[in-house]
Design a protein that fits this description.
10 strands, about 55% helix, alpha/beta, five-stranded antiparallel β-sheet, 3 domains, Beta-Lactamase, Rossmann fold
Amino acid sequence: MNSDPLAHLDSTDDGESFSRERPQPDSASENRSEPSQAESTNAPVRERKVLLVEPDEKDRQLMRSAILMQSPIFDVFAVTSAEEALNLARSTSFDVVVAANELNGYPFEDLLKGLNVCLPFSPVIVVTRQDSPDLALKLLLSGASDYLPKFGEFQRFLPRTITTNLQRAIIIENLKEMYEKVEQSSRDEALLNRFVVNIHGSLDIQDILDRATESLLEEFNAARAIICLIKEPDNEMRIARQRTRNEMLPVSDRSPIFSRYHDMLLDVGERRPLVVMQDDTFPFATDVRGEMLNYRIKSMVMLPLVYRGRLTGLLHLDEDRDSRLWNARDINILNRMANQLSIGLYQAKLYQLVNAQSSSIDKLTDLCAQLNKVVDSTKELTERTESREKVRIKLSSREIEVLKKVAQGLSNKEIAEELHITEGTTEVHVSRLRKKLNLSTRAALVRYAYENHLS
């Protein structure tokens, strides 16, 4: 879908703008009349195109004149048959179609289907000499947006009908765009959740790297997924894990692609993602073009791995297809995944350090005092965490917030102001806290909060 809901009204089906030369209808059709001298000098720009399908010459002239005179932004292309209308719709984009129901030799339902295929975003207004609820329902079910009976000076109402249906089409397109954005956001959140659950399901660094590269390769259907980490003490960027598909040649650990990106991050001082196409001309792209050609990289994206402000590595995805472009949505979700990966790797490294220290307790007797302090602090932290988890099992997140505020000595009114809820709601939460925790007084709630490290 186009990001602009009006894009289908301002461009043709093949992506060209209205500035191109418009095709002329067949000889049997009727195009616009030649403008007068006054019209050609001060004529307004006609931004919208109307396809008029009407075999009756008198009605065709009436409708065409009414549209041009009452709606200065509309330009009218008039044809006399369904075949001409479909041929013109296949080559030119129209904003709205006005078609007569009485077309000889061609089923009108087939015309509506054809127009909806060629001009899916353009409303079709049917003008008819009949007026009945059954006919109206039939036309609407066949794909028409509206209909106008040919009674009296019906042509006077046609411009307003066109405008109304165009506005309706724009609203529908906006709603579709909003729905697709919500759907895309939901899919992105689901993707991120899968990645988080996957990498945080382990505390082994090698296992995390395996899971992360496999997830990245599958979720983004890329040619390669590479994770580089900075090796100490030389502070060089080296490949920690690499996954490929389609029998792609693995990238060398010494490839300047990674070292150049590392240097750029250090020189610029900004930890920004980088997207490179094979035919880009900025300095980084020209420096690594040979590597991209060697490894059949048509496009690639790289993001820094940063934990607590410290650069720890990079994330790399590349593609061997010309059609693949790394858009803003890809960059956004990859950046969030890189943040989670940085956290997961740090936690795994910390876990390994703790295990190494724990296994050396018996041999390093001279460090017993220090280790006892570490054990005590770890135990206290564990108890606090377990205590909080027990409270969370009993209480909702809102009730925990209220309990913390009660422990701070705030009144119900003050709690309501800080949490942006009503005082009555606060009283309900406090009452539920007493009931769930089997405590009778507010002082007991304060004591409970302190004992469970919620103060």
